[in-house]
TrEMBL record:
Organism encoding this protein: Lactuca sativa (Garden lettuce)
All copies of domain Peptide chain release factor, residue ranges: 200-310
This protein's name: Peptide chain release factor domain-containing protein
Pfam families referenced in this protein's UniProt entry, alphabetically: PCRF, RF-1
Taxonomic superkingdom: Eukaryota
UniProt key word Protein biosynthesis: yes
Any single GO CC term annotated in Swiss-Prot or TrEMBL for this entry: cytoplasm
Length: 487
């Protein structure tokens, strides 16, 4: 960046970018190092060595975020809880603005035309970013988020909070999560305003290189903020967790078992495409083809947030490869998804006396010891009748530990649904495995189409869907669900 332009902007402090951060920078300096007087930093223009170093830093900062802005963020992380509440309440109430008073809401209200990203139009980029920020706020339910954050901050100040460590940990985690979301949105607004200010300064000084560089930075931000839109869809309490995905064949014998195997393979390929770890926890093979049921563990950030969109019955229509008469068959497979909660987040305490543990020989090809010892384990929670099994590990102890983890997740899911006064998604999805309860249809004959019956989103490339390209269906459902919640 041009040091001359930045120095001139600094000299025009009432209307410059840097002047907006003067008071908060003084506060940061005085709080972080009492020996340093804030007047030594900004009080005089007679200390060019200090100003030059700050301009040099800004010149090297390609993202366009100023030094003072970074210090403001550092200050907010290091101050007391009371100051943090005050700082973020103020930030949420007062939007940042450009030197001439332009805010993100004003950009949206101006309705600047949004052109293709290839067009080098800064107003187009700014308008697209402002619209994205507005959408993120809507998906995060911004006003409710601010109220909830204030409530949590108040609870964290109570001296007896940690008398109940489990409850305190839950409050602390939720507070940290909401604080992170608020920081994210405030940071996006601030970055957009700074880019616009730089472009206007560059035009005022006729510095075409600086203007071009700032427009490119704005374009980069426009592209990256789209990812934040997606993350805002996954704002649920457990959306960031890993998960278990279970697929169970419906009525229809070999045809349905084969279809259940295809659905499970689809999810394995989807998870691998997203870079998630996939582990087979339990699998009961069909006599001829496919599976009767199977459970996989999907490890990765937001695995549950995405996979929860797949809960329900999946219907297949095709010419059966197992029918000598080549007739058309309809098959069903049910999918259930449960989150894997972290330590200390479990909703149900399992008592050993409530468990019935059965040991049996694992099926499948196995290894040296897999089929000659009773290494497979099935655990039944007697009060609820919920079961979990694992036969994938070589030792009985490992299988028992894996089965217990699955059982814990299913009981947690059941308890969460009960607390919300809803039917358990897990139970419902595996029992309503028939006509009228399907969420998606996969038609391979007489035409080819995959259609989500909840959103009406459809594609004709059935092969790509069965190979794991289901993100469009997931995003369509999540967006539709979020829009309905915000109505």
């Amino acid at each position: 960046m041009s040091s001359n332009i930045l120095r001139k902007a600094y000299n025009k402090r009432p209307s410059s970018i840097i002047s907006r951060y003067q008071s908060i920078s003084k506060l940061f300096l005085s709080s972080s190092n009492p020996q340093i007087q804030s007047t030594d930093f900004y009080s005089s223009i007679d200390k060019p060595q200090h100003h030059a170093s700050k301009f040099e830093f800004l010149s090297k900062n390609a993202s366009g975020v100023s030094l003072a802005s970074n210090k403001r963020l550092n200050f907010s992380c290091g101050c007391s809880l009371n100051n943090t509440r005050l700082l973020f309440s103020t930030q949420a109430a007062v939007q940042p603005s450009t030197a001439d008073g332009l805010t993100v809401d004003a950009i949206v209200a101006n309705q600047w035309t949004i052109l293709d990203e290839s067009e080098s139009d800064w107003k187009s980029h700014a308008s697209a970013i402002a619209q994205s920020i507005r959408l993120i706020k809507k998906r995060l339910q911004w006003e409710k988020l601010k109220v909830r954050l204030e409530m949590l901050s108040f609870q964290l100040e109570k001296p007896d909070l940690w008398d109940d460590p489990v409850h305190a940990g839950k409050i602390s985690r939720e507070h940290g999560s909401l604080m992170g979301k608020m920081k994210l949105v405030n940071g996006l607004e601030q970055e957009l305003i700074e880019h616009i200010d730089m472009i206007k300064l560059a035009r005022e000084e006729e510095d075409h290189d600086l203007e071009s560089e700032s427009v490119k930075a704005l374009l980069k931000m426009r592209q990256s903020v789209k990812e934040k839109e997606l993350e805002a869809l996954l704002a649920g309490e457990h959306d960031s967790c890993s998960c278990y995905i279970e697929v169970q064949a419906g009525a229809g014998g070999t045809e349905s078992m084969d279809w259940a195997g295809m659905v499970m393979q689809m999810y394995k390929m989807w998870a691998e495409r997203r870079g998630y770890g996939v582990t087979v926890v339990d699998e009961m093979r069909g006599e001829i083809a496919g599976i009767k049921r199977a459970t996989i563990k999907v490890d990765g950030e937001y695995a549950y947030g995405y996979a929860k969109a797949e809960v329900g019955a999946h219907r297949l229509v095709r010419i059966s490869p197992f029918d000598a008469a080549k007739r058309r068959h309809t098959s069903f497979a049910a999918v259930a998804v449960t989150p894997i909660l972290g330590d200390g987040s479990h909703h149900v305490q399992i008592n050993e006396s409530d468990l019935r543990i059965e040991r049996y020989r694992s099926g499948g090809a196995g290894g040296q010891h897999a089929n000659v010892t009773d290494s497979a384990v099935r655990i039944t929670h007697i009060p609820t009748g919920i079961t979990a099994a694992c036969q994938n590990e070589r030792s009985q102890h490992q299988n028992k530990a894996s089965a217990m983890a699955v059982l814990q997740s299913r009981l947690d899911q059941r308890e969460m649904a009960r607390q919300a006064q809803m039917n358990s998604q897990y139970t419902q999805s595996l029992t309503d495995n028939s006509w009228g309860n399907q969420i998606r249809s996969y038609v391979l004959h007489p035409y080819r189409m995959v259609k989500d019956l909840r959103t009406n989103f459809e594609v004709s490339d059935t092969d790509s869907v069965l190979e794991g390209e289901i993100d469009d269906f997931i995003l369509s459902f999540l967006t539709d669900s979020m829009d309905k919640e915000n109505e």
